[in-house]
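User: My collaborator sent over this chain with a note saying "see what the structure looks like." That's all I know about it. Can you take a look?
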Amino acid sequence: MNTWRGAWHIFKYDMKRDRYGFIFNILFYTYLVVVMMPLANLGKDSPNIYWLKDALYFSVLPNMGYIFSKNIFRYWSDDTFSRKLLLYRTLPITAKQFVAARFFNLMVTMLLGWLYFFGLQYMLTSIFFDAPNLAAYAGQALFWLGYATIMGVTYVYWELCHSGKVFVIATLPYFLFYGLLVYLCYASGFSAILLIYDKVLAGGWWIPVTAILIAAAVVLAGWKMITIRVKARVMN
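Assistant: Without extra context I'll predict from the sequence alone. Here is the result:
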């Protein structure tokens, strides 16, 4: 069985197993969109109010590649992915297949969540407030997809190349990083969301295009690097 066919079988098994968790993802994204709705109106008079929305975008979007299942809360205690990797090493499943399946899972879960989140947000904003420019909104959404993908790949690195405890510890500083980004935006008097939207509206399509291209490069490089690390990883 070649790499992609094997990865596809693993991916389908994982998605089928976690299908109910994806329903929770949808409910959670719906809740976020509804909670953020008032900011769409308040932000017209005070862009700094958008710092709350910036915080959600910076911190939540990178996690769209994860399905909310019981396993996601057991990294520390059960070392979920290390146990799975150890099991797969006893089967005719290669490291390439295992890593490729995880990247399939990451990208499909993220794309579905991204489409739902930004689609619902645009629809509700258009119903209750002034509809944003569709092209500029789409460009802004593409930028955030690129950002989320880049950060998501770094999560997968810690997840597959190290133990569950290391993964949890390594991801804690991410929230400091997200907080720093929000603080810098707030202290500078602008919202990242509004800034990107305005730039794209003014014709700055190089911003989302660059973000997507960098994300594609990170996915390719990340897949190759993580595969090498997983092959060499010593399981205790």
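A starting point for your reply to your collaborator: The chain has ten helices and no strands.
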